[in-house]
Specification:
Chain A: One of its GO terms (biological process) is transmembrane transport. Chain A: Keywords: Cell membrane, Membrane, Transmembrane, Transmembrane helix, Transport. The complex is a heterodimer of chains A (about 325) and B (about 550). Chain A is mainly α and about 325 residues long. The N terminus of chain B is likely disordered. Helix content of chain B is about 30%, strand content about 20%. The termini of chain B are far apart. The longest helix of chain B has 27 residues. Chain B is globular, with a radius of gyration of 26 Å. In chain B, helix 8 packs antiparallel against helix 11 and helix 14 runs antiparallel to helix 15. Classes of the chains: A mainly alpha (about 325), B alpha+beta (about 550). Chains A and B meet through helix 2, helix 3, helix 5, helix 6 and helix 7 of A and helix 1, helix 6 and helix 13 of B.
Chain lengths: ~325, ~550
């Protein structure tokens, strides 16, 4: 187990190095730079050049890269050009709303998925259970942005049950935070639950073909017990992988939801940074997402080992 | 398919249909027919102003910094006017009025301006305003900003002979007061704050001014909160534009960063925001909403297309620029916005009609020309080959730019000329314009339509190297700056406008006014951008 963790940590360093390096050169190869955004359309070429010099954007690219790399190795991810604040501070300030959305929606989706699939598995002939299960495919087909707009229109503007937008930290004012989070979380939960339900159902179908179930039935174990004690737990592994990947992609991918519901998360911040060509913030933000991605995958692997004794043994 | 499956599918379809029907019914009931909104700024403000309350304002972007010199973001300007004051500022008629200056004097030769500061002014942190602060702020404004670009070549020095006097000495006459008054970057800061400026300007923890409000808190990307500056000492005179005494009635002003236009509109409707500047396509809906008021701003932006004068473009030829002027149906482009209340013909002028000191109709006759057949002949005379394509570029961030280019593209097509439109984010657009000057022909943008000094915007890097008659413009600007009386200035201004219209560095399309939608409890709004120094909330 320790060896697995060490190997993953080594991979993490490689991933961060590659992501950071590729991004560094990619950002400097696209048209536009922070100076033009800051100074606007009327700036003279001399003013633009002077600001570029002040920002350290002139000189050979390899020198800029080595300077950046040296700083990163000492834990200095630089200062946001737009906000004039340390990049790490910007990331930590803006990750909380995104993490709140991701954690809450993932937990609810996971629990709903387990409930739905358990219900369908234990009561395969129940019409409502089947309907809910079929609805998963429908839920997967609905674009999140469309759902979000519909939710705002119906539940905020028409019925007035929830605010159309806004964000309050969960622990600062829980009541307000929950009303503000309800719609965005609900929209995310629909898509995630649909995806996880389909994944888990397929896993259950695969598990139902396993020979050990025949042995269990031959021993006289009841069908309900077989489903609850054997089929469902063994079907969880692919779901865990999906939950992990889904969670990691949410960290950088909920920008549309953040934008519609005006949630000041990392995705929105990074999008603004791209428009402003805020190179240090883009690099730091993307590397942080890559870091989380690898970390979540590591945690999923560790969870595998906890759930499945075969993985531990191997 | 078995019948059970069929029934299940029918149920799902019915549920979806119900949802869509519900949505459609909602749409129908959300279209009020009572036009109860008030148009025009400053109308219907009942009662006496009262102090207190918080005003929540939607801000489209976090400006990042409040360095009004180096940061061209609109939000920086909006907030800067609440926090900082200038020596002089424009009133609602765009005339300079003293604010921090008690008075100013121009020498007979026009080479020295002496500003006497009002006594007893203190910054919001309690430190007294000194002429050394003025000198530091003004030097920073000239050195780092683009607004004072035309002043820089003629500025000799800025000095402070004593704590209450600031002196500008010039190498040649220049309309200095007008420039300072109109620039949002000319606000006076503490000299120590100016000294704290880094590569990206003055940091957020050095935002101290003498204006009616001061910075209370700033959560990057989320909100900026201003609070009343109790040490604010208003100038004499009633409030007008950026000049005059401001009421500072509000306890706080909270600027919420909301990029999404629809989210801003929803926030207005549900009372999350008190004030917002919505988009043009939301104007009719807002006007029909009885719970919102509309204030059309007095100022406007000029929407224009820049014609590339570099040798790689057909528009380096005068005939091609004249052809474009003949071809473009400015009225059709203006009408395409669908908001007649908010658009005005530009008449080719580089200032709006409201800016009386800078507005000139000397180029109107040429601007009014519209003759596609003649345009076709002129394009041929300019040497446009049949296989040549006119390359138009713009940004997606302002939909009106692309609207205009689509109409121009259609006009070109009708006379047999191919044209392409490429749209980018702003940074990419600027990169393309500056770094690949021969890769485009037409660029759609907008500009502040209220220059304090004659504006001659070429917007194309390296134009002077192409034999463009900048040498003929310089004497005209010199004559304007040397004019002794407003009448003389007006005559010289007409000459500059005529010169601009003759050479067509840009082709103005129309003037676009912004508007503000606000909650009826907001009073005292005077149609002056997102400025709330005189706004109060009804109890």
């Amino acid at each position: 187990m320790l060896w697995v963790i060490l190997r993953r940590l080594r991979d993490l360093v490689v991933v961060l190095f590659v992501v950071g390096t590729v991004l560094f050169f990619l950002l400097r190869s696209i048209p536009g730079d922070p100076a033009t955004v800051l100074l606007g359309t009327k700036a003279s070429p001399e003013q633009l050049e002077r600001l570029r010099q002040d920002l350290g954007l002139t000189g050979p690219l390899y020198e800029q890269y080595l300077h950046w790399l040296g700083n990163v190795l000492t834990g200095d991810f630089g200062t946001s050009i737009k906000y004039n604040l340390p990049v790490l501070q910007m990331i930590f300030d803006n990750i909380t709303p995104t993490l709140t959305l991701a954690v809450v929606s993932t937990v609810i989706s996971f629990l709903l998925t387990v409930l739905i699939v358990t219900w369908v598995t234990v009561a395969p002939h129940n019409r409502v259970a089947r309907l809910v299960s079929r609805a998963a495919q429908f839920g997967l087909a609905l674009p999140e942005f469309w759902l979000a707009l519909l939710a705002v229109y119906l539940f905020a503007l028409t019925f007035g049950w929830f605010p159309p937008s806004g964000y309050t930290p969960l622990f600062a004012d829980p009541a307000t935070a929950i009303t503000q989070l309800t719609l965005p979380v609900a929209v995310l939960v629909i898509g995630q639950t649909a995806f996880l339900t389909i994944t888990m159902e397929e896993s259950v179908l695969g598990e139902l073909t396993q020979l050990y179930l025949r042995t269990a039935r031959a021993k006289g174990v009841g069908e309900r017990r077989i489903m609850l004690r054997h089929v469902l737990p063994n079907s969880m592994l692919p779901v865990l992988t999906s939950v992990g990947l889904n969670f990691a992609s949410l960290i950088g991918g909920v920008v549309v939801i953040e934008s519609i519901f005006v949630i000041p998360g990392l995705g929105t911040t990074l999008l603004g940074a791209v428009y402003a060509r805020d190179f240090p913030l883009i690099q730091g933000g993307v590397m942080f997402i890559a870091f989380l991605f690898v970390l979540v995958n590591l945690l999923v692997d560790l969870a595998y080992a906890l759930i499945d004794p075969k993985v531990r043994v191997s | 398919m078995d019948r059970t499956g069929q029934r299940r599918k029918t149920k799902i379809v019915a549920l979806v249909a119900l949802g869509l029907l519900l949505s459609a019914c909602g749409t129908a009931t959300k279209s009020p027919t009572t036009p109860a909104a008030q148009s025009g700024a400053g109308q219907g403000d009942p009662g006496q102003p009262v102090r207190g309350g918080n005003l929540t304002v939607r801000l489209a972007q976090d400006p990042g910094s409040l360095d009004t010199v180096q940061n061209s973001n609109a939000g920086t300007s909006y907030l800067g006017h609440e926090i900082f004051e200038s020596l002089v500022a424009i009133d609602a008629d765009y005339q300079p009025q003293p604010v921090l200056a008690e008075s100013y004097k121009k020498s007979d030769d026009g080479l020295t301006y002496t500003f006497t500061l009002r006594k007893g002014i203190v910054f919001s942190d309690g430190s007294p305003l000194k002429a050394s602060d003025v000198v530091a702020s003004m030097r920073y404004w000239v050195d780092k900003g683009s607004y004072a670009g035309s002043l820089k070549p003629v500025l000799k020095d800025i000095t402070a002979p004593d704590d209450g006097t600031a002196v500008f000495t010039l190498k040649a006459p220049f309309n200095l007061v007008a420039l300072i008054a109109a620039s949002h970057g000319s606000g006076i800061r503490k000299a120590s704050d100016v000294a704290a400026a880094g590569a990206t300007g003055i940091p957020q923890d050095h935002v101290i001014g003498t204006g009616p409000y001061k910075l209370k808190s700033w959560t990057a990307g989320q909100e900026i909160v201003l609070e009343r500056n109790d040490k604010y000492q208003p100038p004499s005179g009633t409030s007008s534009g950026y000049a005059g005494a401001k009421g500072a009635y509000l306890d706080t002003i909270t600027y919420k960063v909301v990029a999404d236009r629809d989210a801003a509109f929803n926030g207005l409707q549900t009372g999350l925001f008190d004030v917002a500047e919505p988009s043009y396509d939301q104007y009719d809906q807002i006007k029909q909403n009885p719970n919102l008021k509309v204030g059309v701003e007095g100022a406007a932006n000029i929407q224009y297309v820049a014609l590339n004068h570099n040798s790689g473009s057909i528009f380096s030829k005068q005939e091609a620029r004249d052809a474009m002027n003949m071809l473009v149906d400015k009225k059709a482009i203006m009408d395409s916005q669908g908001v007649p209340d908010l658009v005005l013909p530009s008449n080719g002028a580089f200032a709006t009609q409201t800016n009386k000191a800078m507005y000139s109709e000397a180029g109107k006759a040429k601007w009014d020309q519209h003759d596609p057949e003649r345009a076709k002949q002129l394009f041929a005379a300019a040497g446009l080959r049949p296989d040549q394509t006119i390359r138009m570029i713009t940004t997606d961030e302002f939909p009106q730019f692309k609207d205009a280019l689509v109409i121009i593209q259609d006009s070109l097509k009708k006379i047999g000329i191919k044209a392409t439109i490429e749209s980018y984010d702003f940074a990419t657009l600027m990169g393309r314009k500056n770094n690949e000057p021969n890769s485009w022909d037409v660029l759609a943008l907008m500009d502040d339509a209220n220059p304090p000094v004659p504006s001659y915007s070429d917007n194309v890097q390296g134009m002077d190297n192409m034999g463009y008659p900048r040498d003929k413009l310089a004497p005209l600007l010199t004559a304007y700056n040397a004019a002794k009386t407003p009448e003389e200035q007006k005559q010289e201004l007409d000459k500059i406008q005529a010169f601009t219209s003759e050479n067509l560095p840009t082709l103005t399309l129309y003037n676009a006014r912004s508007y503000v939608a606000y909650n009826p409890k907001v009073n005292g709004y005077d149609g002056w951008g997102l400025e709330f120094a005189n706004v109060w909330l009804a109890r």
